[in-house]
Structure formats: C-alpha cells, structure tokens
Design brief:
heterodimer, A: alpha/beta, four-stranded mixed β-sheet, 9 strands, 10% strand, disordered N terminus, B: Rossmann fold, 14 helices, flat
C-alpha cells in the first residue's frame, strides 16, 4: 500500500553518539512539526543509571532541597534495581521551559529515539498546552524557584540546624496533598517577584498573625461579633496555606518553608490529574512518529522490531486476576483512548455515530488537539472512553460495600454497561474522591486556640490508621490542639481524632507556656 | 531548538539525602548492625551488611482512606463475569480490593537495604563508643608506608639530600673548573719558561699574567653550590608490605558463660581483629575454647556450642603455648591474644596460669588483652593476672559489663600504633 520512499536509514545498529542522536532528533522534530505539535525548546540530558535513580528519588524535581525521605526513596530504588526487581524508567521529563528530558546512557538508539519522540515531543507539547498546566504551573520559573527553594532551605539549615528544618519539612510533607488550591487559581510564579516579595512578606506575615492572635482585651461589642463568626468563615481546603498564614507560633522562616512545600505540591498537582491523558498522549505520539520514520525509510526493520517490542511492553495491561496486577496501566488506557479517537474520526462505525456524533468526519488531528488542551483525566474519560475501548480492554466494575457480605459486579462491557463504566472510571480518576476531603473548619480564637478540621466522608469511607500520626505533624505546625472530625453525608460526626490525645490534653493552654 | 547536555560526569545527588536517611534511623540501624554482628564471622570485616528497619518506623504518614464504606472500581480483563454476579470478598489487605492504597503505607514489608562497609563499621564503632581518631584509623582500607623512591630536582628544603647535592656541586665545579685550571697551568708553564729564559718582564709575559689573572677570576666565579646541584629525597606512599600476624582468641565456655557474655566477647575479638587487619595483610585466627580442658575449634563452634563443667584456664594457655611453638614461630609471626572469661577458675590453677603467661607466652606476643565479663567479685585469676600486668606493659586487662567498656582494653594498643 505505502511505497517506501528510497531514503537511507539514519543509522544502522544499536549504537549511538551525539551526532546520530542529533540526526534522529531532527527527523523526529520534522515529523512532529508536520502534525503541528507545539512544544517548548528541548534540553536533552544524557545521564547514567545512578543519576536516573537520583531523579526518581527526588520525585522528579531536577533540583531539590535535601531531605531524608529522598534518601529513603533512593535507597529503595537502588536496592530494587540491583536485585533486578525493577527496570528503570526509560525517561523522566520535567515540565519546564526549556523542557528537560533525561536519557539513560545504557539505552540503545531505538530506545533513545522512542524516548525523544515520547518525552521531548509528546509530554512536552502536553505540558505546554494543557489548560491545567497553563493555569497552575509556570514552566519558565520552576527551575529558578527550585534553586531558590534549595538555597533557602540550606540557609535555614545553617541558621537553625538541620534537625529543626527537618521537623518542619516532615510535617509539611505529611500535609503536602493538602497544600494545593483545587479550585482557586494561584498567581503565576515568577522568581523576581518571588524574591522581591519574600522580604516584604516576612515582615507583613508576622504582623498579620499577630493581629489575629492579639491578646489585648476586646471591647464588649467586638466580643459579640467574634462569637457569631467562625474563623475561617468558609472551610479552607488548602491546609498548608492556612497554616502559613495563620499558625500562631511559627517563625517567619518556618512559614517560608511551608510555602515552599506548598508551591512544589501545587506544581505537581496537574500531573496527578492528567496521568492517563499525558502518558497516553506521549505514547500515541511516539507510536505515530516512529511509524512515520519507518514509512519514510529512515529507520531499519531491526530498529522497528525493537521499537514495537518496547512499545508493546509499555502499553501492556495485566488482567485483574494476575498475581502481580497493580491496577489499570495508565499508558494502556490513555493510548487506547487517544488511538480510538483517531479511528473514530477516520473510520467511524454505526456505534460511534451514536456515541460520538460530534467527532464524525472531523479532522482527527484537530480533535485530539482540542481534547489535549481542554481536559483532565476525569473529564477526558467521561467524554471520550468509547465502547470499543471498553470491549477491547474488557473493563468491568465491582462494588465493594462493607455492609454486604460479598462483592457485586455492577457493569461489564455490554450495551447496558458502557455508560456506567465510563462514569465509574471517570470517578476513579477524580482526585477529590481518591484523597479524603479534609478541610480546615474552625479555630477556637477565644478559647484554647484549638484547630478543628472536618473530613467529609465519601461513600462512608473512613480515614486510615495513619490519621493520628498526620495530626501529630499538623499539631507541630499549629502549636495548639488539633481536632479532626469525620462527618457522614447527613452531617453526623462519626469519628473524632485529637492531638494531643484528649485525656492528657491540657484544657487551658497558656500562650506563654506553649511558646517555650 | 534542541540542546544536548552530557550530565554523566556530575556527581550523583542523592548522597546527602542517603546520609540523612541513615542518620535519622541511626538507632534502628545500630540495632540491625548489632544483630548482624552476632551472625557474621569476625574475620568478615570488608563487606557491607544488609540491614532491616521495621516498616512502621519509616512510613511517611498521609491522610488516606482506610478500608470500609463503599468502593467501586474498574478492572480490566473480564472473562467470566456478568452484571449482578456476586464474588466472595477476598481477605482484606490482600488481593485486588484496595490495591491502590496498599502499594505503600499499610501492610508494607520491612525495609531492607544494604549499607556499605564504611557505614557498617561506623555504626559498629559507634556502638562501642570508639574515639573518632581510632574509628577513622580502623575504617581505613589500606595502610600506606612512606618509602624512599630515589631523588628529584625539586622539593621542599627539608628534604634536601646533602650528600647528593654536594656531590653534584663538586662534579659541576670540576667540570667547569678543570678546563680553566688547565689553561692556567699551561699559561703558568709558559710564564715559567719565559722566566727561565729571562724574558719574564716582557710584554708577552704581561699578557700571560693578565690571562692567568683573568682565568683565575673566572675560576673563582664558579659557585660553590648552585641551584641545579640540589637533589631532594623523594618519598612516596606505598601500601604497607605484607606481614603476618596470628590472633589467638581464648574463651571460657563453661556453663556460666551465657549468650550475652559470649556476644560481648565476640565484639571484643572483632575489634582486635579489625585492628590487626589494618596492620597486617595476613592474619590467622586461632580459636581456643576451654572449660576444664581446652579445644582448638572453628569459629562457628567457638561461639555457638555450649558445655558445662568446671574451669581450668591453664588448659587453654598451655594449648596456646603449644600451638605457638609448633606453628607460629615468633620470629616470623606477630602474635596477639585476646582472652575472655567470666573470671571463674579453679583456685590452685591461677598461679600456674600466671607462670605460663610470664614464662612461655608474654615474651613472645605483641599484645595480650584480657576481659572479665560481669564478675560478681574478682577471683583468684584476676589477682594472678594483676601480677602479670605489673610485669608487662602490653598486657591489658579490664572487667566490663557492657560493650562501651571494651574499647579501653585496647587503648594502649591503639595509642601505640596510631601515634
């Protein structure tokens, strides 16, 4: 069908050097351009296996402040790798401008080309154009910010001791998932502004806090208004933000550290929300691009065999009843959905016409480009998961209700099940369902200064047994009693956690005593 | 648009974080190392160790859902199920249900990883409360010796080799001076001839005299010693030459030596071994256990088998003496001995022990260390050994009841060698 253009393969064999890499990158860039992939400039870094483990351990931050947990992570990765229990990722890519991707030196040229197509053009274009990344992160500033954070924390360690800093970081890390604004848009990060504002913030913050905690006697009138109002007036979802602004006993540098952890959490938040889309998008493009190279005769058959084998491994989905099944493979699911969108645009069936009238006879490239820009996993699945993909993957849903004796299959891949599976799967990627919904509810301003949080239960799910430990960390930051209440759908309190445990908690905290 | 950067030369970044991790869990790791020591051979000091930290100690807690309520999840690969099918609930914490959460956090295995030799020794030394200097010395891999390695032209003034330099200077003076001297001699000859022919005051004689003066001036200008005459001794670091040592481990295994005491003894032997392994390339370790009779055994048996009965310490000393005489001539071997006991001995035997030590053993050994572990009160053996201690400086004795007291036994030994 397709006549192979008479072109010479870029290289033969699996060895590579910089010149060859450059040639592949040029060829891939050209293909990517023909599909109008809009990317940041690329910065491709060649690293060794041990450096790849570093990159793993630092949670994907190219520059990170020091913390023991990253060391633990590293030790863990290292031991698994040495034991052969895991292979290293082929690539790690940073959402920054220029977009930094790591290539491992051990990889063959096929792998390198795959990774370049996958990361440097796939992920890169996603980072640059997806609405979540555009509104929540600032690729231009992240590296500068991380450098600033690293230096700031190093300075704090010098000034206050590693131990002191570690205590704050431990506490912040425990609450990292609650350091993001889910709905409110943060102002964009800019390093200049950040630096300028930091000094001002330092002075201002402290004064703010002090106003809130004024111990001067109030007039009768103001007391009354205080009694009526709850503080904060609305529940606050961003616990770390609340701590940074309102915790009574924190020093200024401690507030700045809270802020750093919060900012880093915010930076990674979109990645958590677009795992399926982003990985699927990158797989879709490496598959498309490398196939184009092959069709143009730029790569050899041998290259292609290796590529296909790797590609198949990446998007392999174990069945649910397999011994080492760990869940849906985001690469598989994402790749399948994107690929099927392309098919629906080009060769729709009757079924597709019924399910996706808006996609029929549309340009596939424009269609997927639109989806890439405007969706996140949850909405992407709700909108585009097709019956064919459900059939191909043989998806089914199971209800596990602890009030019943056994589990029940609620839907399978048939006519009645498609829509239901879509909904359930979409919910499964809704972060606000995955993470317990815990918000700052009230501060006892006039009494013992205790902080009350509320956990609104989702489908009656309780909190796990680590809850008290997390509260200890929150207590460390807040400095006074912390209370967490689990509330069911009817507003009834089902569980209460105290830190310190109620029995020993002093009922009347003295501000001066607590200040040490 | 694309830039390539080679980062492979950068040092790896997690080193600091790893160190902090180890620092943070030092107490747990110390425990792990302590357990490891009771299991590994005392001659096995050049390896790291696999250590285990209980998972619950290192989890980083987060808010998360526990088990309960309603959960509805999607799975791939349906083969047999239809809608409405009921499936028995798999045991909690295992299987597919809630697999998302159990990846980390709950139900995790203990955290096992390898620490390096350096980290292992560091934790071990910490346990024994060794002074820092000693720790550093012991942990060092190879020992270097400063060696002569010929002469070089440049160096620091303290290393000037005077003989070489002077010899060079002399050679140079001869080389430069001799032709001049020959000229002078020739000129003087001519002058003398002129004198003999009574033409000593003619113009010819004058020029000759000028020439001689000039040559003599030049001769004088040859420096006595010049910069390029100087030669310096070159010293380089060479790994220490192979020498051999034998280490005798003597231990009382009578009924009163329980596991705890043996464990202490093991640390004591291990420390001596470490010290020796730093100083000697080849070390033989001889294990002698005794109750009423002594036995030459393998390490495994030495530490782990148990017997009951009385105690005759001299049996072990006799055996050590015999082994030295038969296998380890003191002219070829550096002999070290470490003895651990709980102080029990048959009273009449103690003076005999003292005599063997003084006459047959101590004259030939480099160092003899004795520890008495948790004695109720000192018995006759201690008294006898005190006598020995008065006579020999390199006989050390100490009673200990915990591991931090082991090091002082060797204090003299380490002091001697690290100064």
């Amino acid at each position: 069908m397709k006549t192979k253009a008479i072109a010479k393969p870029i290289s033969i064999g699996s060895e590579w050097d910089y010149e060859i890499l450059k040639k592949y990158d040029d060829a891939i860039a050209e293909v990517a351009k023909s599909y109008h992939l809009d990317t940041y400039p690329n910065q491709i870094e060649i690293i060794s296996a041990i450096q790849m483990m570093d990159a793993y351990a630092s949670a994907g931050m190219p520059i990170g402040y020091h913390h023991w947990s990253y060391g633990k992570q590293f030790v863990n990765v290292e031991k698994n790798y040495k034991r052969g229990a895991m292979g290293l990722a082929y690539e790690i890519v940073i959402n920054s401008n220029p977009c930094i991707s790591y290539l491992m030196e051990e990889n063959s040229i096929t792998m390198q080309a795959l990774v370049i197509a996958h990361a440097c053009y796939g992920h890169n274009s996603f980072f640059k154009n997806n609405y979540l990344f555009k509104t929540w992160t600032n690729a231009d500033a992240i590296i500068d910010y991380l450098v600033f954070a690293k230096n700031y924390i190093a300075q704090c360690e010098q000034a206050h001791g590693v131990q002191e800093v570690e205590e704050i970081l431990d506490a912040c890390h425990a609450l990292m998932n609650y350091g993001v604004d889910r709905y409110k848009h943060p102002p964009k990060l800019s390093i200049q502004e950040e630096k300028n504002r930091q000094k001002i913030r330092e002075e201002y913050l402290q004064s703010q806090v002090n106003t809130l905690w004024q111990t001067l006697p109030k007039t009768e009138k103001s007391k009354d208004t205080m009694a009526e109002k709850r503080f904060p007036p609305e529940p606050q979802e961003n616990i770390l933000y609340f701590i940074e602004k309102n915790a009574p006993l924190l020093e200024t540098w401690q507030r700045e550290i809270v802020r750093i952890v919060r900012k880093v959490a915010q930076y990674f938040y979109p990645q958590k929300q677009t795992k399926i889309m982003n990985e699927g998008w990158a797989c879709f493009w490496h598959y498309q691009i490398i196939n184009d190279l092959y069709n143009n005769g730029l790569v050899t058959d041998q290259f292609m065999m290796e590529f296909l084998q790797t590609h198949t491994n990446v998007i392999f989905q174990l069945p649910f009843n397999h011994q080492v099944y760990t869940g849906l493979n985001p690469y598989t699911l994402g790749f399948n959905v994107w690929k099927d969108m392309q098919r629906i645009c080009e060769e729709p069936t009757e079924e597709d016409k019924h399910w996706f009238p808006e996609l029929i006879d549309k340009n596939w490239l424009q269609t997927i480009d639109f989806a890439m820009r405007n969706f996140k996993d949850e909405s992407f699945i709700a909108q585009y998961l097709s019956p064919k993909v459900i059939r191909d993957m043989k998806l089914f849903t199971v209800i596990d209700d602890d009030q019943k004796n056994d589990l029940e299959v609620s839907a399978i891949h048939n006519e009645q099940g498609y829509q239901y599976i879509r909904e359930i799967l979409s919910n499964q990627y809704n972060l606000s369902n995955i993470e317990p919904n815990i918000q700052i509810y009230n501060v006892n301003l006039r009494g013992d200064r205790s902080l009350t949080l509320r956990h609104v239960q989702y489908k009656r799910k309780p909190l796990n047994k680590n809850t008290n430990q997390v509260l200890k960390y929150l207590h460390r930051l807040w400095g006074f009693d912390v209370i967490l209440e689990s509330v069911d759908s009817e507003g009834k309190i089902t569980a209460t956690y105290h830190c310190p445990p109620r029995a020993t908690a002093p009922s009347q905290n003295n501000y001066q005593d607590m200040k040490k | 648009m694309t830039t390539f950067v080679d980062r492979r030369k950068n040092k790896h970044k997690s080193a600091v974080n790893r160190r902090r991790f180890i620092q943070r869990y030092r107490e747990q790791l110390k425990k792990a190392v302590s357990n490891a020591i009771s299991e590994r051979s005392i001659t096995n000091t050049d390896k790291g160790e696999k250590v285990t930290i209980p998972a619950k100690d290192i989890t980083e807690p987060r808010f998360a859902h526990g088990y309960g309520g309603v959960r509805e999840l999607t799975y791939p690969g349906n083969k047999e199920f239809s809608r409405g099918d009921h499936i028995p609930r798999p045991p909690i914490g295992k299987g597919q249900q809630g697999s998302k959460a159990s990846n980390k956090g709950e139900g995790l295995d203990d955290f096992i990883f390898e620490i390096s030799r350096e980290e292992f020794l560091d934790l071990f030394f910490d346990d024994l409360e060794l002074p820092d200097l000693i720790k550093k010395e012991l942990a060092k891999m190879t020992n270097y010796k400063r060696m002569h390695a010929g002469y070089v032209k440049y160096g620091s003034p303290t290393n000037i080799n005077v003989i070489r330099s002077m010899r060079n200077a002399m050679g140079r003076r001869i080389a430069l001076g001799n032709p001049l001297k020959k000229h002078i001699a020739a000129a003087q000859m001519k002058l003398k001839e002129l004198h003999d022919t009574h033409e000593g005051s003619g113009p010819l004689a004058e020029t000759l005299q000028d020439e001689i003066k000039h040559l003599q001036k030049r001769l004088k200008k040859i420096p006595f010693i010049d910069e390029f005459d100087l030669r310096y001794n070159l010293r380089i670091d060479r790994p220490e030459m192979t020498t051999q040592a034998v280490m005798f481990c003597l231990m009382d295994v009578s009924g009163s030596m329980d596991e705890v005491k043996k464990d202490l003894a093991k640390r004591f032997f291990l420390l001596l071994y470490l010290f020796l392994s730093k100083n000697y390339e080849k070390i033989d370790v001889v294990f002698i256990r005794h109750h009423t009779t002594a036995k030459h055994v393998e390490e495994q048996e030495f530490f782990y088998s148990r017997e009951t009965g009385g105690t005759v310490v001299s049996s072990a000393l006799e055996m050590m003496r015999n082994i030295i005489q038969q296998q380890y001539p003191y002219t070829e071997w550096n002999i070290y001995a470490a003895q651990a006991s709980d102080g029990d001995n048959w009273n009449a035997d103690s003076p005999y022990c003292r005599d063997i030590l003084i006459n047959d053993i101590l004259p030939y050994v480099q160092y003899y260390a004795y520890i008495e572990i948790m004695p109720r009160h000192h018995q006759s053996l201690w008294q006898a050994y005190l006598d020995v201690k008065k006579r020999y400086k390199y006989f050390a004795m100490q009673h200990i009841n915990d591991r931090t007291q082991i090091y002082p036994v060797f204090r003299e030994l380490f002091k001697r060698h690290s100064s």
